[in-house]
Amino acid sequence: MSTLLPAVGVSCFGRGRRLQLLGQPAFWLFVAILAAAGVATLRQQSIFRDISPSGWLLAWTLMIVYALPIFVVVFTVDLFERESIPLVIAALLWGGIAAAALAAIANRGWALAFARIAAPDFASEWTAALVAPGVEETLKLCGVVLIYLMARREIRDLLDGFVYGAICGLGFSVVEDVFYFMGVFGGRPVAVLQGFFLRIVAGGLYGHLLYTGLSGMGVAYFATRKGKTSALRRISVAGALVLLGMFAHFLWNSPWLDLFRHRPWSLVDLIVVAFAAVVEAMPFVLFVVLTVVLARRREARWLGADMETEVDGQALLPGELEVLRSPRLRREAVRDMHRRAGPRAAALLKRLQRMQIDLAMVRSWAETDDDPALMSQRAYCRSLRDALSAVPAAAPASR
Amino acid sequence: MVALGELMQASASVQAKREGGWLPVLAVLVVIVAVTMGGYVTAGALSKPAGPPLVIANSVRISPLSGWQVGQEGRVGDFVGLRLTRGDASLDVLTAQVATSREMLLADYVRNSLEPQARSLSVSQSVKEMSVDSGLAGLRISYVGAFGDRSSQGEGEVTAVVSESGTGVIFDAWGPAGLFGYSVGDTRKMIQTSEIM
Q: What ipTM, to 2 d.p.?
């Protein structure tokens, strides 16, 4: 199997890629802000734990149970390329620690300023809607921008931006919700459950994850369309996506959608609130799903365009490109291989498919056809194919 | 292959240096600082006394900041005074003609005025020293509790100051739990600049 391992330094892209973070100024700013905000976050969590240890533990347990599957879904939304794990974790930490802590400070300051210019009643009712979206979306967006500045090659298409943005929003949402459970709903286990139902079960899909996912797509559009579209169009589209995320946040915070005004609620109230929240959230959720689906299709077309020149180059055989473009066909091919030639051959085919997708990614940024990274990735694909061919009954590697 | 690996690393290193640069990072830092602190700077710039100072019970002169409205006059236990409001937040400025000390005044207000109004009340253990601009020293505590028929929690802070002539002044600033923080800067500033006669 040792012949199948990529050579040292070859896999600068894909599963073994290396991030050159230490030399990046953005990395150091990221770390400095994260460290300072981390102290504030620990202090706040310590206060919450003192209020009600059992409530605090329940709040975190519920949020982790809620966040884990969402994390997995967002992380795997990009079918053709898994994002860098360290950067995804960085996005999560920025959202949950840096953006959340800074937003707590900033929201208070801008609320004070808003109260100076608005009538008291209006300020009381609209501060959350008019202050928080701008503040919170900007601070989360700064995290995505810093991630881009740290590792520009990691954001190559809209889906990359969506993933980093959504994960950042997810981190923010988790910490913010724990704050609400403990600080607003009261912190006792029953209150935490009530808060979880209203903020997560009823409205969980429509939240920071989607707002920042859209903003992240804006950053990705601006970053990846350089040289392909005019600067005006890049700024317009990116700005529109960011503003759309802010607008959705504004809608959710506005008194128009304030479903939690009168407490305590009866069981019927809770059901009505949950139903109303889901119905009101649906248009935006559908819009984001549609955007992601379109981005995935675009990515599939782009994959095909980039890889057509690789067909017959031994890294990719005729017929394999079609399989590669469809996750369903890829899975079927692996299952078919498993039936015909056993689990080892199926695992080899699966790895070959992944490396072929990585080849497409390398191809997208390689400046010349004989780029060393491109050549090594081709060689690695070939070595996998040779290994697969050596397995009895594995001969037709694809449909 | 080793040479190829070294070439790749060198290439990546060059690429990293090319990608680096402080300008965009500084731009991000400026945005973060502006968003985080800009509100306070703006609020400070907009914060100014609105209208002439109010004189309450011939004992205290206070200048409401912009956005604050004068509410009703009233009595709480042995205290008489005036309420200033901004949205859900309020500042009750109350006077007692005879006060022996700040400590007694504060304890008296909490025991005889605050507690009877509360269904539940939790007062901070620590008592903070403060002083108004005219030099008089005061004491401050914070509290959370449920008051009247409101279902939600309220929070606030009480400041007690005694003038040289023995007039006691209580400043009770309060609002809904979680939202009071938006107003505490204002209430502290109005207390700070008040004049105890």
A: 0.77
